[in-house]
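Subject: for your reference before the review

Hello V.,

The reviewers asked for a structural picture of the protein, and I figured it would be easier to keep everything in one thread rather than splitting it across files. Below is the amino acid sequence we used in the manuscript, unchanged from the supplementary table.
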Amino acid sequence: MTDYDRLDAWVDAHFDEEVSFLQSLVRVPTDTPPGNNAPHAVRTAELLQDFGFDVEAHPVPVDAVKEYGLESLTNLIVRREYGPGRRIALNAHGDVVPPGDGWQHDPYGGEIDDGSLYGRASAVSKSDFASFAFAVRALEAVAKPSHGAVELHFTYDEEFGGLLGPGWLLAQGLTKPDLLIAAGFSYEVVTAHNGCLQMEVTVHGKMAHAAIPASGVDALQGAVKILNALYAQNARYQQVTSDVPGITHPYLNIGRIEGGTNTNVVPGKVSFKLDRRMIPEENAAEVEADIRRIIQEAAASSPGITVEIKRLLLANSMRPLPGNQPLVSAIQKHGEALFGEPIPAMGTPLYTDVRLYAEAGIPGVIYGAGPRTVLESHAKRNDERVVLEDLRRATKVIARTLSDLLKPA
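And here is what came back from the structure prediction:
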């Protein structure tokens, strides 16, 4: 048997344990909002300690968490030191959007049905708590590395942008790895992703009785003009294309609108929230300035209307950094061997907190347990699931990759 065969055999022999580990994680809710995620970190730490791992718990100060709109947040680091050499971090996030309606399986049950494990965060990305932890266990049991180090980073702030997750760990000087693998899917290795600008726009008019509408200023009509201008701009974005495979063009979405007080009242205030996805070639500051210009010009065409514009999130794009090629090459080699098909290196239209590692100069990629697309995983929808064979094979890919990268030069 080769070393790769022995790593694969270890994963196979412990796969039932890995599935049970993932089920335990799915059964502790981490809905964000409200973002009361410290209990999940406690449970995760207990399970990791059962493997003999020393777990560092890094609670984010309560005031910072509350100001951010969350309830509790504790990030975890596991450091496995082997000797001189590369330090490789493996990051997955435990926070996830609430389950919503329409589930045929208990969103916190971890049920197994027809070869898939169901539950909120089963695919994104508690599955990679499992794949990464068990890959490290396989590495240590079989390859017994004597060079380099591995860190597990399990964080709880991706849904809100990552600034209190990886961003906080990096800002506090708690970690500075040489390379990063972050939670992803199994059939591609992602080297770039879109950025995201989220804003809240409040349109102010003057409330009035609907019987005498001329005495007021209709904030909704003002908002409609602004929305029409934004949607017209969104159509133009289709002409702006990215050179990164897997990423098409910028786009804009209005995801929430609220306002008015009653049907017989001219609305004096309307607010909406927008999401602007930025391709890697775009400059985030220029994008934000352009959105603000469009809103202000449309508002100016409605007498009596004023607007407030508040930035909610600015997540920069992730661009490939020099130095990520060893990760890409190893994952592609082992992914093709284990999945039986080429693993392309490409971009994704999503945005992730992996960008924060890239901004700190740490070359990284996105790879883990999951299907070919977010749509297949049902992430952020009902009946989220991970195919167990994808979990098994992704764990082997990560174990083999770590074995390659931690060998002495």
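For the response letter, the relevant points are probably these. The radius of gyration is 23 Å. The longest helix spans residues 219-237.

Happy to draft the paragraph if you're swamped.

O.
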